[in-house]
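Module 6 notes. Inverse folding takes a fixed backbone as the condition and produces residue identities as the prediction. Think of it as a translation problem where the source language is geometry and the target language is the twenty amino acids. Below is one complete input and output pair. Work through it position by position during the lab.
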């Protein structure tokens, strides 16, 4: 611990939806320095005041916020920010959720639980994405939209009927022979395109 007298630093954030900053300021109470953020919602990384607050605080300071959602946008974001502040020797106090205050054993425990939840959330999302992709591939819908337009298919069909080798037609269209066959047969993702 340095000789620095710990300051209490407040952080408030209002979005375009909720412009009532006074409520947050009142909840936080008297602080040595207040950082106030107005986020438009358009640019999610527009949190200059948060970055400034993090570089301003020093060991022994306390950051006071009304609630975790004012500081962070997700569990992961909250954990990262808390970790960043703890690394500087700065405690975080949540007025609405004192159980998360980082300078208490309960807070430490809650944050450990949250970290586990965030990890599970990420793993579940990854698994769902992988399952979704596998399912889509099985159905044949994961590939990009059809490479050939109905006009190109009609033209290819005409050229093939005129005796042009399919390999050459495929080459000219810059697609694989398999894609050309699928398009000519009107199967897979070409079923709807050629059904006229």
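Target side of the pair, the amino acids:
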């Amino acid at each position: 611990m340095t000789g620095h007298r710990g300051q209490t630093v407040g952080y408030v954030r209002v979005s375009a939806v909720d412009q009532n900053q006074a409520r947050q300021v009142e909840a936080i109470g008297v602080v040595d320095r207040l950082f106030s953020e107005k986020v438009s919602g358009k640019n999610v990384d527009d949190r200059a005041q948060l970055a400034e607050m993090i570089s301003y605080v020093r060991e022994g300071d306390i950051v006071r916020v009304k609630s975790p959602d004012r500081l962070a946008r997700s569990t992961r974001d909250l954990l990262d920010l808390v970790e960043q502040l703890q690394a500087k020797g700065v405690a975080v106090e949540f007025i609405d959720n004192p159980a998360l205050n980082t300078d208490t054993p309960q807070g430490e425990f809650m944050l450990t639980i949250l970290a586990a939840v965030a990890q599970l959330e990420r793993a579940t999302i990854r698994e769902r994405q992988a399952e979704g992709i596998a399912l889509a591939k099985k159905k044949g819908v994961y590939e990009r939209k059809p490479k050939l337009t109905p006009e190109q298919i009609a033209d290819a069909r005409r050229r093939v009927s005129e005796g042009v080798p399919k390999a050459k037609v495929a080459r000219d269209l810059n697609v694989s022979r398999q894609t050309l066959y699928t398009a000519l047969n009107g199967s897979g993702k070409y079923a709807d395109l050629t059904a006229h």
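Reference fact for the lab report: The longest helix spans residues 105-139.
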